[in-house]
Specification:
It contains 19 helices and 8 strands. With about 550 residues, the protein is α+β, with helices and mostly antiparallel strands. It comes from Magnetospirillum aberrantis SpK.
């Protein structure tokens, strides 16, 4: 898995970043937001600008070699937050935008999905900016995720740090598995190109990852230099000797650099040289070699040249270089010419031209050369001091000018301009809020106009149904009372087994007795009971 990140400056704003993540459907088969929102990312930029932070967003990317689910991707982002000191991962995740991209990888073998996370540089849970030392920690996150997800372990450039730091953090289980994979042994991997170069090439219409795969295929399918060149030519690529010693480079059809063969193919320089040749061999690592042609500084020759030079200085003559020792004459001449070219360049750069022209003797010996170098160094030191004093004077003048009425006015004008910009920004925010409130009010009015008449009609319908039900209930109660009172018509209809509706209609003419009549009937009934044999005194207490 590859984990990497870029810090996005607050001054750049969210537009370009969000366009890169969400606005390029032609470069991705699918784009899905799986967490957060673009509006939240815009708010993070606004907060960073308000706080005066230089960086607003850390754009982290997670590209696994093997299949990984969206839940695992969210877990990877949470691991990133925990690695960089989040005190509340759940709370910080509410401010993170996570976007999934699907597109084929250059090697057509790795997993075709990767994830982008826009994380606030100033974590809300801590209020502090995340640590900018992140390259080795990215590898620690990647190796830990590979172990947890069961992916193939990938070797990085900070393997020892990853293993030791995991062991110190109490994750000895992961460290032991990494030790078992022997990631800390062997040569370190080399990147073929930087992500910046990939983006620049993409804007130029060049596909660096695709060309790298073509170079790798040509290298693996060739067994000689000629076969390698022929395979590259089929893809419109060429190979030539690079400027660096022992390096071969690949160019595209337009002659633009693709990269070095060793980095593009992932093989050692020695293997490349064995197949393609040494190319531009590196120079000797030391000045003195056990060779008569290289050793031009013999003691005898040096003493003779110094003596000849001293004689020439005394007589005012110029001693040609050919009067020196014959041994190593060619090498000495080359060194003298090179040194003279350097001296001329230095004199032109620092305005010293003509200073040494009046001398009778040009530098012919090492002592004279050393003396000249000392003088040049002295003059360069004096020039540096003069430049420093000049810069100090400029700073003093700037500070002095800033205290003048004109400077104060300019400073106040700048502050007023900033205040006006802030005021306009606040006014724009308030206007946006008012427009949003008005929009919500209009939506409410539309809803009322659409649904209120329907609700009113339904309520009236329900009320009518309830009234009918109450009327039916009252009629049934009246019928029951009529039957209990012995109403002849209702009783006759009931005894005849007629329907309820007819019984209700028959009892409709019955009028319930008044309270006085009911009381009289009750008293009469009690008297009748009292007159009955064996029930005397029934109505008394």
């Amino acid at each position: 898995m590859i984990v990497k990140a870029t810090r996005i400056k607050a001054a750049s704003g969210p537009r370009n970043l969000l366009h890169h993540l969400l606005g390029k459907p032609e470069e991705n088969e699918e784009i899905v937001v799986i967490a957060g929102s673009p509006d939240e990312t815009g708010d993070v930029f606004a907060d960073a600008a308000k706080n005066g932070d230089r960086y607003a967003i850390r754009h982290a990317q997670f590209a696994p070699d093997q299949v990984m689910s969206r839940d695992d991707a969210i877990g990877a982002v949470r691991a990133y937050l925990a690695e960089f000191g989040s005190k509340d991962v759940d709370g910080d995740m509410r401010h993170v935008l996570v976007v999934e991209h699907q597109k084929k990888r250059a090697d057509n073998a790795s997993y075709d999905r990767h994830w982008h996370a826009c994380i606030p540089e100033r974590l809300p849970s801590t209020g502090r900016v995340m640590d900018s030392k992140m390259y080795a920690r990215h590898e620690r996150i990647a190796r830990s995720l590979e172990i947890e997800l069961g992916h193939q372990i990938r070797k990085g450039r900070h393997n020892k740090f990853v293993v030791e730091s995991l062991r110190e953090a109490g994750r000895g289980d992961i460290a032991a598995k990494l030790d078992g994979a022997e990631i800390a042994k062997g040569d370190l991997p080399q990147t073929a190109y930087t992500s910046d170069r990939v983006q620049i090439a993409k804007r130029q219409g060049r596909d660096l990852p695709g060309m790298r795969q073509q170079v790798k295929a040509a290298w693996s399918g060739a067994d000689s230099a000629d076969a390698f060149r022929a395979a590259l030519a089929e893809s419109g690529l060429t190979v030539e000797v690079g400027r660096k010693p022992g390096t071969w480079i690949v160019n595209d059809a337009a002659g633009k650099l693709v990269g070095s063969v060793d980095r593009l193919t992932g093989v050692k320089k020695s293997e490349v040289s064995a197949r393609l040749g040494d190319g531009n061999p590196p120079p000797p690592k030391t000045r003195h070699r056990a060779s008569a042609e290289a050793d031009v500084h013999t003691t005898t020759g040096r003493e003779e040249r110094m003596a000849d030079t001293a004689t020439a200085q005394a007589s005012g003559q110029v001693i040609p270089f050919t009067q020196g020792a014959a041994q190593g004459e060619k090498g000495e001449q080359q060194k003298r010419s090179l040194l003279q070219a350097i001296v001329d360049i230095i004199k032109r750069l620092f305005g010293l031209a003509g200073q040494y022209e009046s001398r009778a003797v040009r530098p012919e010996s090492p002592d004279q050369i050393l003396q000249m170098v000392k003088e040049i160094r002295k003059e360069m030191g004096e020039m540096r001091s003069a430049i420093a004093e000049h810069r100090l004077a400029i700073d003093v003048l700037k500070d002095h000018d800033s205290r003048k009425p004109e400077g104060i006015k300019a400073r106040l004008t700048g502050e007023r301009r900033e205040w006006e910009q802030d005021r306009q920004g606040y006014a724009a925010d308030e206007q946006a809020k008012a427009e949003k409130v008005e929009e919500q009010r209009q939506l409410l009015e539309k809803a009322k106009a659409k649904w209120l008449p329907k609700a009113t009609a339904k309520a009236e319908e329900n009320a009518a149904e309830n009234a009918a039900d109450l009327s039916k209930a009252a009629a049934l109660r009246h019928t029951a009372e009529a039957l209990l009172a012995g109403d002849p018509k209702a009783t006759e209809a009931a005894q005849a087994g007629k329907p309820v509706a007819e019984i209700v209609a028959a009892a409709k003419e019955w009028t319930p007795p008044s309270k006085a009549e009911a009381a009289a009937e009750a008293n009469q009934a009690v008297e009748e009971l009292n007159q009955a044999p064996g029930l005397k005194g029934f109505g008394r207490r």
